[in-house]
Specification:
It is a single chain. The longest helix has 10 residues. This protein has a single domain, classed as M1 Pyruvate Kinase, Domain 3 (Beta Barrel), CATH 2.40.33. The N and C termini lie close together (7 Å). A hairpin with an 8-residue loop joins strand 1 and strand 2. The protein is built from 5 helices and 16 strands. The strands form 4 sheets. The protein has a 7-stranded mixed β-barrel with strand order 1-11-10-14-13-12-16. It is of the alpha+beta class. It is globular and about 50 Å long.
Length: 288
Amino acid sequence: MPVGFVRELWRYPVKSMRGERIDRADVQARYGIPGDRGWALREESVQEIRGAKQIPALLQCAASYLVEPVGEDTPAVEITLPDGTSVCSDDPTVHATLSATLERTMTLWPRVRAETIEHYRRRQPIDEAEMRRQYGLLGDEPLPDMTSSPPERKAHFRQFVSPLGTYFDAYELHLVTSTAIDVLRRRLPDAGVDVRRFRPNVVIDTGDAPDDYPEFSWVGRRVRIGSLVIEVVRRTQRCAMIVHPQADLARDRTVLRTLVRETGHTFGVAANVLEPGSVAVGDAVELL
């Protein structure tokens, strides 16, 4: 059943930094769009991979590849800093430059082999207070519902910050629809609702879909995008990252407050690759 077409494709070369729009991608299992979250920063004081949940200033940096990534390769990236200067990942000063920008000791890492499990180890356990901080919750707002997550996945993320061998939060792809974005814009006309706040890989134009959040009904279904086939696994839980400023977007709490109230902290859907394939802007999207 046709549900729309690809309006935008995005990848994020460095975890939690602003990404880049692309026209097409040969999407693969495990790594998703080539180069997506190919790099990440580690905070040396705790020896743990970090993102904008812990360091919101990462969203004030942007990253782009110097050459097009292919397969699971992670080529060098250029990082544009908040002051407009830039530094490349192969520059010997990159760690010191990022540390000075973020005001803590950081090192920049490409993805490393899954067998190097200590690299992905979670060093600081997340208690309820830390979860509430990362999700940007007010005192009377509930924590997200985690009951749909399989026990083995919960056990993994108690030990590791990401799926081993990747820097994803959890899944290989993130999808949002134009309908969902438009719904939020109509409800919050002064909120600065922008797709960049949600960091999707694929923005799907769903036209005049009858539901406010049509992608929610895709959970548990297979979807074909171009020649790619994916399985939509779950709604994407939203955290405080959508509140923080980035580029020309100001800090804004109202979008998160609305999602906590209306969708149980969720917006967009997470998916994994079933059949690798090519995707391009303009490709048809259909439920299978």
